[in-house]
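Translate sequence into C-alpha coordinates.
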Amino acid sequence: MGQFMMRNPLAVHIDFKDINGLLGKRLPSNIDMIMERHGHFLIGEWKRDNEKISLGQQILLKQLARVDKFTVIVVNGNTDDGMTINKFWQLNKDESFSLLGTSLQDFKDYLVKWDKDANL
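Result follows.
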Protein backbone atom coordinates (compact mmCIF):
# COMPACT_ATOMS: atom_id res chain seq x y z
CA MET A 1 0.00 0.00 0.00
CA GLY A 2 1.47 3.36 -0.99
CA GLN A 3 1.40 6.49 1.09
CA PHE A 4 -1.91 8.28 1.27
CA MET A 5 -3.53 11.18 3.07
CA MET A 6 -7.15 11.44 4.08
CA ARG A 7 -8.51 14.51 2.41
CA ASN A 8 -12.20 13.70 2.35
CA PRO A 9 -14.04 15.84 4.94
CA LEU A 10 -17.17 13.76 4.25
CA ALA A 11 -15.50 10.45 5.04
CA VAL A 12 -17.68 8.35 7.31
CA HIS A 13 -16.52 6.80 10.54
CA ILE A 14 -16.71 3.10 11.23
CA ASP A 15 -20.13 2.16 12.65
CA PHE A 16 -19.82 -0.36 15.49
CA LYS A 17 -23.57 -0.84 16.09
CA ASP A 18 -23.40 -4.53 15.13
CA ILE A 19 -21.18 -5.26 18.13
CA ASN A 20 -23.07 -2.98 20.54
CA GLY A 21 -23.52 -4.82 23.84
CA LEU A 22 -21.05 -7.58 22.95
CA LEU A 23 -18.54 -6.33 25.56
CA GLY A 24 -20.98 -4.65 27.91
CA LYS A 25 -21.08 -0.90 27.39
CA ARG A 26 -17.63 -0.81 25.74
CA LEU A 27 -17.21 -0.09 22.05
CA PRO A 28 -14.09 0.62 20.03
CA SER A 29 -13.09 4.25 19.80
CA ASN A 30 -11.57 6.09 16.88
CA ILE A 31 -8.43 8.17 17.23
CA ASP A 32 -8.08 11.17 14.94
CA MET A 33 -4.30 11.22 14.82
CA ILE A 34 -1.50 8.82 15.68
CA MET A 35 2.21 8.99 14.89
CA GLU A 36 5.15 6.80 15.85
CA ARG A 37 8.84 7.57 15.98
CA HIS A 38 11.41 5.20 17.52
CA GLY A 39 8.82 3.62 19.84
CA HIS A 40 7.34 6.97 20.90
CA PHE A 41 3.68 7.56 20.08
CA LEU A 42 1.77 10.80 19.61
CA ILE A 43 -2.00 10.45 19.88
CA GLY A 44 -4.24 13.36 18.91
CA GLU A 45 -7.97 13.83 19.40
CA TRP A 46 -9.54 16.70 17.48
CA LYS A 47 -12.70 18.47 18.61
CA ARG A 48 -14.58 21.42 17.22
CA ASP A 49 -15.86 24.28 19.39
CA ASN A 50 -18.41 22.95 21.90
CA GLU A 51 -17.81 19.31 20.84
CA LYS A 52 -17.23 17.08 23.85
CA ILE A 53 -15.10 13.99 24.26
CA SER A 54 -17.31 11.02 25.12
CA LEU A 55 -16.85 9.27 28.47
CA GLY A 56 -15.40 6.18 26.80
CA GLN A 57 -12.94 8.26 24.82
CA GLN A 58 -11.97 10.18 27.97
CA ILE A 59 -11.15 6.92 29.73
CA LEU A 60 -9.16 5.65 26.74
CA LEU A 61 -7.15 8.86 26.34
CA LYS A 62 -6.41 9.10 30.08
CA GLN A 63 -5.10 5.53 30.10
CA LEU A 64 -2.97 6.13 27.01
CA ALA A 65 -1.51 9.29 28.60
CA ARG A 66 -0.26 7.16 31.52
CA VAL A 67 1.73 4.84 29.26
CA ASP A 68 5.44 5.57 28.95
CA LYS A 69 6.43 6.92 25.53
CA PHE A 70 2.82 7.90 24.74
CA THR A 71 1.90 11.56 24.39
CA VAL A 72 -1.77 12.49 24.15
CA ILE A 73 -2.90 15.85 22.84
CA VAL A 74 -6.37 17.32 22.43
CA VAL A 75 -6.83 19.82 19.65
CA ASN A 76 -9.61 22.39 19.34
CA GLY A 77 -9.87 22.95 15.61
CA ASN A 78 -10.77 21.28 12.32
CA THR A 79 -9.51 20.45 8.86
CA ASP A 80 -12.62 21.45 6.91
CA ASP A 81 -10.92 23.99 4.68
CA GLY A 82 -7.26 23.61 5.48
CA MET A 83 -6.05 23.03 9.01
CA THR A 84 -7.42 25.35 11.69
CA ILE A 85 -5.98 25.16 15.21
CA ASN A 86 -7.56 27.29 17.92
CA LYS A 87 -5.82 25.71 20.92
CA PHE A 88 -4.23 22.40 21.80
CA TRP A 89 -3.28 20.77 25.07
CA GLN A 90 -1.32 17.81 26.35
CA LEU A 91 -3.17 15.37 28.60
CA ASN A 92 -0.73 14.61 31.41
CA LYS A 93 -0.31 11.39 33.40
CA ASP A 94 -2.08 13.02 36.38
CA GLU A 95 -5.10 13.82 34.11
CA SER A 96 -4.36 17.55 34.09
CA PHE A 97 -4.00 19.48 30.83
CA SER A 98 -1.12 21.71 29.74
CA LEU A 99 -1.79 24.30 27.05
CA LEU A 100 0.73 23.77 24.24
CA GLY A 101 -0.31 26.39 21.72
CA THR A 102 -2.96 28.55 20.11
CA SER A 103 -2.23 28.49 16.38
CA LEU A 104 -1.37 26.31 13.42
CA GLN A 105 2.23 27.54 13.64
CA ASP A 106 2.39 26.53 17.31
CA PHE A 107 1.08 23.10 16.31
CA LYS A 108 3.71 22.74 13.57
CA ASP A 109 6.45 23.83 15.97
CA TYR A 110 5.20 21.30 18.53
CA LEU A 111 5.24 18.45 16.00
CA VAL A 112 8.85 19.27 15.06
CA LYS A 113 9.83 19.37 18.75
CA TRP A 114 8.03 16.09 19.49
CA ASP A 115 9.79 14.43 16.55
CA LYS A 116 13.17 15.79 17.65
CA ASP A 117 12.61 14.59 21.23
CA ALA A 118 11.61 11.13 19.96
CA ASN A 119 14.90 10.91 18.06
CA LEU A 120 17.00 11.37 21.21
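Note: The radius of gyration is 15 Å.
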